[in-house]
Write a structure and sequence with these properties.
Length: about 400
């Protein structure tokens, strides 16, 4: 099921970017791809042996969604909200499954929020795969129906005018508009590299929580600093919702799933695993009893340096260069850097690397969407649990 969803997304991206079929990932066999194309182009799901009535409502405006939500409340139903920016993959779906296991109803929001993208970031090229996303959610809702779990009762896909009703969204640092800021937490790590990112995230989540009034909200551990920001938002603004965190969904070799992975192509994807590898090296140090920052992080830094040198030594047509943005060992509540891990609290190991545009792309090489020319920022993390 997971690979079917990935293929759906990949094909949707290729359709959007007009990439020739020969660039389809070798992960998918030709008959499988044909099946997925048939599925994508069919208007009704064909695999269910039982009649299945899709019942997911799509809302674009606030008032009808609120009425829908009020009716749920009056019927003693519970609501889990899964905020997304679309381009759905198994990471998103695992959150929806979790929400459906814990609530009678799930809302999925699909909105690419402009205020969390800096002026020079990839807002324009961010993948938008609405039709594939809706197909994926229909398949998933059918699965949930057969399990007797909660159902995806609404998809909220607002316009930017709906989300920013007064002033147009402003991504500049001085930013005109109504914003929520969580300081200094939102300025560290991801926030240091992307100064408006957490202001945008906290602001859009405050809006979504106010609109949907969810009993529970679901976020992925993949974006761990985001989960810490959201917990703080809920606590400091007394929001009446419970924050639930789902585990990071990964490829077999450990690469964290991300909507942006479709841009990597094979060469950068194979080197991009360096981030997960270096975090695991640091984790092994903690598991071996090391508590001091230097002792935990040195093998991680060493692995990054060696991999970088290896790539630099290759000819341009064979290498995938990258820049390490940060490798962090941080306090799990504040994300401040630690000199030593307190065993009673544990810590968060996290990192970010930027995969640079490919050099000397070869004829027939699988380059990913965008021809390997879109820089891709990868993030990942591992939680170091407290020692009992
Ligand atoms: P996005 O659409 O990237 O904003 O992500 C929407 C939600 O999905 C966020 O809570 C993410 O943390 C979560 N998410 C993204 N990738 C993964 C993943 N690989 N595993 C689990 N959750 C994920």
């Amino acid at each position: 099921m997971a690979s079917q969803f990935q293929a759906l997304r990949y094909l949707a991206m290729c359709t959007n970017h007009h990439c020739p079929p020969k660039r389809l990932s070798p992960l998918y066999s030709a008959p499988f791809v044909r099946r997925v194309v048939r599925f994508l182009s069919s208007s009704s799901p064909r695999r269910s042996p039982k009649p299945f009535a899709p019942h997911t409502q799509v809302f674009r405006d606030v008032d009808p969604l609120r009425k829908w939500r009020r009716d749920l409340l009056l019927n003693n139903r519970t609501l889990g909200l899964v905020p997304t920016m679309g381009a759905l993959h198994e990471g998103h779906l695992s959150l929806v499954r979790q929400a459906a296991a814990e609530n009678t109803d799930v809302f999925v929001s699909i909105y690419v929020n402009p205020t969390q993208f800096g002026m020079n970031e990839d807002l324009a090229s961010y993948p938008k795969t609405w039709e594939a996303d809706m197909k994926i959610l229909t398949v998933l809702d059918r699965e949930l129906a057969s399990l007797g779990a909660g159902r995806i009762s609404a998809v909220f896909a607002p316009s930017t005018k709906t989300m920013y009703p007064t002033l147009p969204p402003d991504s500049s640092i001085p930013g005109a508009g109504s914003f929520v800021e969580i300081r200094p937490l939102g300025q560290l790590l991801e926030g240091a590299s992307r100064p408006v990112f957490f202001r945008g995230v906290a602001t859009v989540c405050m809006k979504l929580f106010n609109i949907c009034a969810p009993d529970r909200v679901y976020f992925g551990q993949k974006d761990i600093q985001q989960t810490v920001v959201i917990k703080r938002l809920v606590k400091d603004f007394h929001l009446n919702t419970e924050v639930r965190i789902g585990p990071t969904e990964r490829e077999k070799d450990g690469l964290a799933l991300s909507s942006r992975n479709v841009y990597l192509g094979t060469r950068r994807r194979n080197v991009g695993i360096v981030l997960n590898q270096l975090l695991r090296k640091a984790e092994a140090q903690y598991n071996a009893g090391k508590r001091k920052r230097g002792d935990i992080l040195w093998p991680a830094n060493d692995h990054a340096d060696k991999t970088l040198l290896e790539q630099e030594a290759l000819e341009p047509g064979k290498r995938a260069r990258f820049e390490v943005d940060y490798i962090s060992l941080a306090n799990p509540e504040t994300m401040e850097e630690l000199e030593e891990v307190d065993e009673a609290k544990g810590a968060i190991l996290s990192g970010a690397v930027k995969m640079l545009p490919l050099e000397d792309a070869k004829e027939g090489e699988e380059l990913g969407v965008g021809g390997g020319q879109i820089p891709v920022r990868l993030i990942d993390n591992i939680v170091l649990d407290p020692v009992a």
